[in-house]
Amino acid sequence: PIPVIIDCDTGVDDALALLLAVRHPGLDLRAVTCVAGNTDVDGVVRNTLTVLEQAGAPEIPVGRGAERPLLEPARAAQHVHGADGMGDLGLPAPKRTASELDAVALLRREILASPRPVTLIPTAPLTNIALLLRTHPEVTRNIERIVFMGGAVAIGNATPVAEFNVWHDPEAAAILLTAGVPITMYGLDVFVQVVVEARDVHRLRASSDPGTRLAGELLAHRPAAVGEEPEAEEAGGLGDAGAVCAVADPQGITSRLLPVEVSLAPGPGRGQTIVDRRPRPGESEIHEGRREQALVDVALEVDANRYVKLYLDTVERP
Ligand code: BDR
Ligand code: CA
Predict the structure, then answer these.
(1) Distance from Cα 9 to the centre of ligand 1, integer Å
(2) CB atoms within 10 A of CB 140
(3) Which of 38, 40, 142, 300 could form a disulfide with 9 if both were Cys (CB 3.0 to 4.6 A apart)?
(4) ipTM of model
(5) What is the pLDDT of residues 70-109, one digit of tens each?
(6) Which of 19, 153, 240 to mutate to test the pocket of ligand 1 (most atoms within 8 A of CB)?
(7) C-alpha–C-alpha distance, residues 261 and 248, integer Å
(8) Residue 6: phi, psi to the nearest 5?
(9) Is residue 106 a contact partner of residue 61, using CB atoms and an 8 Å limit?
(10) DSSP per-residue letters across 148-194
(11) Calpha distance 7→122 (Å, rounded)
(12) Residue 196 neighbours by CB under 8 Å, 6+ apart
């Protein structure tokens, strides 16, 4: 199996990603690290431990990471993920506890100790990963690649042009892109396309297995807007779990190596990932020459049915 570490902000769809990684026979989840994002970092740690426990996962070390982005304040997304950051499902408090090592120390230890190079899967703001790369740059020698959920080619959610994870900590994302290891960007454009149908969600919710049932409850979670009743059960997006699918089954995405830059300037473009899809250089390059830019393997298309099937087949496995 591929040794992987997930860095997350659990998070309804981060929880879906964890469930997949725990149950997929082709993946060896060696650690999970937590960062402020969808909710505060202590909430993320609690939610992550709860998911691992409910999934019946072996004792996987969980590291508490950054409380806030490098420059920006922490800005949680409770309107999407609920007051507890994971859909307010009323789950019991976890019996497991976090590692004594913080996220950066745990990442360093697990990456360097792995007999095979590790694939990192960040599904959250990239603060922990940026701190790791700046504190212990030697880890890159045992990183196979980084497949991150974040950014977008053409759409935004936090702002009209910026995706939440990159918008939350743009400087950290810029550090990631220049890490000097192969990077795949599983961005918002493909993220939104992978959706589980209502009848499948219903079946998962009726399962006798707590982990499978949790996947169903998470997929069914739909935050009500202020003053609105929650909607009846319907289809649910795999979200961050799609990035785990992209590691387990890379053939499910169509990607291209393209220059990507994070917009760091203040103003309406901050946090946008600017992906250069032009076939030939434009005027700025002709007059000023090409600037150094990170080449990133960008997911442009996804076979949504293939990833939904992969998810259901794996998570419903007894
Ligand atoms: C990302 O933001 C979070 O709300 C989700 O967990 C996902 O990682 C999508 O923009
Ligand atoms: Ca996330």
Answers:
(1) 8
(2) 15
(3) 38
(4) 0.98
(5) 999 888 888 887 888 888 888 889 999 999 999 999 999 9
(6) 240
(7) 27
(8) -105, 130
(9) yes
(10) EE---SS--SSSSS--HHHHH-HHHHHHHHTSSS-EEEE-HHHHTT-
(11) 4
(12) 219, 235, 236, 237, 238, 308, 311, 312
**Three-state secondary-structure class, residue 318:** coil
Enter the tokens of residue 103.
């996220």
CA distance 65 to 135: 14
Q: What is the per-residue burial (b if ≥16 Cβ within 10 Å, else e) of 242-256?
A: bbbbbbbbeebbebe
Distance, in Å, from the CA atom of 124 to the CA atom of 285, rounded to the nearest integer, reads 33
End-to-end Cα spacing for the chain: 19
What gap in Å lies between CA 128 and CA 224, rounded to an integer? 31
* Helix, strand, coil percentages in the chain from 3-state DSSP, rounded to 5: 40, 20, 45
What is the 8-class DSSP label of residue 255?
Answer: E
**What is the residue whose two structure tokens read 């977008």?**
152
Taking the centre of ligand 2 as the mean of its atom positions, its distance from the CA of residue 289, in whole angstroms, is 37
Ligand number, closest to the Cα atom of 150: 1
Query: At which residue do the structure tokens 């996220």 appear?
Result: 103
Pocket test for ligand 1, best of 13, 16, 221 (most atoms within 8 A of CB): 13
- In angstroms, the CA 187 to CA 8 distance is 15
The residue assigned the tokens 């990963």 is 129
> Which residue type sits at 128?
N
